[in-house]
Amino acid sequence: MFGNGEAVTHSACSNGSVQTVNGNLEEKLDELRLLMGKVDGDPLRIVGVGAGAWGSVFTAMLQEAYGGLREKVLIRIWRRPGRTVDRALAKHLFEVINSREDVLRRLIRRCAYLKYVEGRLGDRVLYADEILKDGFCLNMIDTPLCPLKVVTNLQEAVWDADIVINGLPSTETREVFEEISKYWKERITVPAIISLAKGVEAELGPEPRIITPTLMINQATGVPIENILYLGGPNIASEIYNKEYANARICGAEKWRKPLAKFLRQPHFIVWDNGDLVTHEVMGGLKNVYAIGAGMVAALTNESATSKSVYFAHCTSEMIFITHLLAEEPERLAGPLLADTYVTLLKGRNAWYGQKLAKGELSLEMGDSIKGKGTIQGVSAVKAFYELLSQSSLNVLNPEENELVAPVELCPILKMLYKILIIRESPVEAILQALRDETMNDPRDRIEIAQSHVFYRPSLLGHQP
Amino acid sequence: MGVVSNEYSNGSVQGCNSLEEKLDDLRGLLGKADGDPLRIVSVGAGAWGSVFAALLQDTYGQFRDKVQIRIWRRPGKTVDRATAEHLFEVINSREDVLRRLIRRCAYLKYVEARLGDRTLLADEILKDGFCLNMIDTPLCPLKVVTNLQEAVWDADIVVNGLPSTETREIFEEISIYWKERITVPVIISLAKGIEAALEPVPHIITPTKMINQATGVPMENILYLGGPNIASEIYNKEYANARICGAEKWRKPLAKFLRQPHFIVWDNSDLVTHEIMGGLKNVYAIGAGMVAALTNESATSKSVYFAHCTSEMIFITHLLAEEPEKLAGPLLADTYVTLLKGRNAWYGQMLAKGELSPDMGDSISGKGMIQGVSAVEAFFELLSHSSLNVLHPEENKPVAPVELCPILKTLYKILISREQSSEAILQALRDENLNDPRERIEIAQSHAFYMPSLLGQP
After folding, report:
1. B66 confidence band (pLDDT: 50, 70, 90)
2. Measured between alpha carbons, how far is B348 from A344 in angstroms, rounded to an integer?
3. What is the reported pLDDT for A382?
């Protein structure tokens, strides 16, 4: 405890709270506990599922904020066991530890240091789950987190959870939550689930539509969609953990989104709430599609700001065009969507992946799960959006040729990304050719097309017409 | 003729035949007879004005009987010793430039200046292709005229490369020399700044309007060319898009004439809105530079800033444009590059780092005019006027539009009234009472805000 005063601890890696323990934090926790019907002596159980960068940071932020209130809340994170840390990474981790006095002291104090020396020397194999207990995320080695309670058994992790944070890639969400549903078969209480996943899938029959991670969770577990929320926004996980000022948006039913926004909000992490779950979740996936292309353009033109701008003009107009198919009032997405896109294009692993492909340092055959980076969600999203927008049942009128075409024909960048990343019939350089096609429409024309016709298809997001 | 690929060639980068055709089309449109060359004059030698003239010279300069391209700048501006030393390094590091100067017997004056034995003038180095605001990017040699009357009296096409703050003054002088003209010239303006006039009703004065008022040339003959322009990148053949806005008679043929493989020019009829948006983005570019410097290039903080400044820009477009959504993509794309790179963002960074201060003024040696500063004042004054009040959705009372634009207000306090330091921009962003930027857009879209009088329209 901090005695009489309301002292504020500023250390980014403190084991305790970064806000006053006596005041706001305990109040916020108590409000949430009450809403979930927790009585004294029954802690609120929050579980992060999946230990990618953002999932780990999210859990660590909660641990730092609320972990000091041990009788009222327990925070843990699940990840699969058995993932080894290779020798090069172990060496790098050792350097990180030794360069950070606070981290070094903490490990020494917890008698947890020597295994890293052994790992450095190659005398011992370290595992991702054991280093995560000490706060090292395999996808974010340079940014040590606070120590976390790590559980590698999924049943033990989630069976009694009150709040589950989905930190899995969308490509693993369905599978893991189907397993979770077995352990929840006899539950009485219904948990709240917050999903951080940004990928999407396309389902083509009986009607073409997008399957979002929250819908996957709903289908896999039977938890009502009212209890499932999406948290989106720009997230360079290491920057958020280092207290860079960031905004996020929690989307879902009103019952949960407002109290959760309040609970999650911190001085440097502002959380707004929004009722439109599906559109924001889908847009989170859409921007990753174009982030890959942005990375390619940046690398191929040696970071030319002018070429980035040309790319941005075209990709934003395609995104706006696509939002007109998916949302009833798409203009309202314009500012926030493009702002999120801005950071996703600037930095982030999808843009990084595009750069590496363009430089030849990575190849498509290596797959979309990259060591040290995690899953590149944009790749599967390219496939999902392309397949969806290629369906002839969604045809729109091409104003120049005055004929019906699939929407994807008006999205040349998406088409080109599909050719580069999925069917692989075009080299990475083709992205520049797509941009430099003189017959390409002024991006403003594409927006005008979208705005001058009624394109909205409620069925694409599973809404009832 | 074949296609020449050398990007520093004095000749064409396209087949001669198609270029000559484009030139002939334009000459025909302007009524030029054989033996009477088309005269194109760039007025003002900032980075973009110089690059624009150089692109035309590189492309069409070979057709000496059909077109003459020249650039006007004021005489007498000296090149300081440090810049002369740097220029000498640039010259010596570029074999093509060095060879050219030696061949033209124009090299030794740079040696003398390097040694401090001679003072160079901006107009004399521009003849050799060196723009004072863009020393690192040598251009092709240009015909430089320092007498304004001699430069413009018989011009067919005038390119306005002046800052907006000098446009009215210079074109008023030009109108004296044009008093007895028979033909009406075509004017393309590159200027991005604006002014605010508060009488008889508050409205914006754009550079094209200034030119129209100063010279009497009809608006039909005045066009605005906008788009992201990092001048040195465009000259180095980075792929770029631009948009020429104005009356149909001229904008389509000029778009065709100006278009090159690496410089795509689209045409658009909405002159006023695009010209103003070109100015608006410079306002927020300064703030972006401040945020970048204060947060050590944090992408997360840049994104927060971008969300708020784009929502303010969208809000402002709803006051100025009848169909503002159509600006969303291109406006924000231009904003993207302006925030990333460009002298307004650079200026914001320098202020935040303490390497420059507002007292030094908004014309910086080596960079040129920072148009965003005067634009902050113009937009702030305009949007502060009580006759433009809008309903504040939370407090349910009328407020001036500027009250819903906290970033613009803060930039005004930092740059104009100077009652706050650069750090205030972060405080404005981190105010927990700040509305979700989406709400600002929703406010704009849910009410009819459009005020034609702001753009001088009925």
Report:
1. very high
2. 23
3. 93
Q: B159 and B264: one domain?
A: yes
How many residue pairs from chains A and B have C-beta atoms closer than 8 A?
168
* A370 and A251 in a common domain: no
Residue where a domain stops, chosen among B268, B287, B316: B268
Beta strands in B271-404 (DSSP E): 363-364, 368-369, 390-392, 397-399
β strands within B227-348, DSSP E: 240-245, 263-268
pLDDT at B195 over 90: no
- pLDDT in the model for residue A440: 63
Answer whether B238's CB lies under 8 Å from A310's CB: no
Residue A7 lies inside a defined structural domain of this protein: no
Contacts of A303 in chain B (CB under 8 A): none
**Is the CB of A451 less than 8 angstroms away from the CB of B266?**
no
B319 and B375 assigned to the same domain:
yes
Record: contact B303-A342, CB cut-off 8 A: yes
The last residue of a domain, from among B227, B246, B268: B268
Per-residue pLDDT, averaged over B4-19, amounts to 51
pLDDT value at residue A8: 33
Q: How far apart are CA B353 and CA B356, in angstroms?
A: 8
| The total number of structural domains that make up chain B | 3
| Helix/strand number for chain B, H first, E second | 19, 14
Instruction: Report yes or no: B458 at the A interface, CB cutoff 8 Å.
Output: no
Considering CB atoms only, which of A272, A334, A443 is closest to B436?
A272
CATH of the domain at A207: 3.40.50.720
CA distances from A368 to A214, A294, A350, A379 (A): 22, 17, 10, 7
CATH of the domain at A346: 1.10.1040.10
Q: State how far the Cα of A459 lies from the Cα of A103, in Å rounded to an integer.
A: 51
What's the CA dihedral at B21, B25, B30, B31 to 10 degrees? Answer: 80
Question: Does one domain contain both B172 and B241?
Answer: yes
Pairing of strands B186-189, B222-226: parallel
Residue A311 within any structural domain of the chain: yes
pLDDT of residue B454: 73
The residues in A 246-285 lying below 8 A from B, measured between CB atoms, are 246-247, 249, 270, 272, 274
* Among B237, B243, B303, the residue to mutate for chain A (most A Cβ within 10 A): B303
Do B304 and B159 reside in the same domain of the chain? no
| Alpha-carbon gap: A156 to the closest alpha carbon of chain B (Å) | 35
Q: Tell which A residues from 75 to 134 touch B, by Cβ distance under 8 Å.
A: none
Residues A232 and A123 in one domain: no
The answer to whether residues B418 and B301 belong to one domain is: yes
| A430 touches B at CB < 8 Å | no
B223-270 pLDDT, tens digit per residue, is 999 876 788 888 998 878 888 989 999 999 999 999 988 888 888 777
Q: Which of residues 205-234 of B touch A (CB under 8 A)?
A: 228-230, 233-234
A212: which residues sit within 8 A by CB, 6+ positions away? A200, A230, A278, A281, A282, A285, A461
User: What is the rounded average pLDDT of the residues B365-371?
Assistant: 81
Whether B310 sits inside 8 A of A272 (CB atoms) is no
pLDDT at A188: 87
Structure tokens that stand for A257 in this block = 């989104």
Range of the domain at B39: 14-73+141-268
Q: Does A441 touch chain B (CB under 8 A)?
A: no
Low pLDDT (below 50) residues in chain A: 1-22, 465
In a domain, A27, yes or no: no
**Same domain assignment for residues A300 and A173:** no
Give the pLDDT of residue B11: 41
Burial label, B102 (beta-carbon count in 10 A; 0-12, 13-18, 19+): exposed
Could B337 and A308 be called an inter-chain contact, meaning their C-beta atoms sit closer than 8 Å?
Answer: yes
- Report if residue B2 sits inside a domain: no
Q: Determine which of A292-301, B193-202, B291-300 has the lowest per-residue pLDDT on average.
A: B193-202
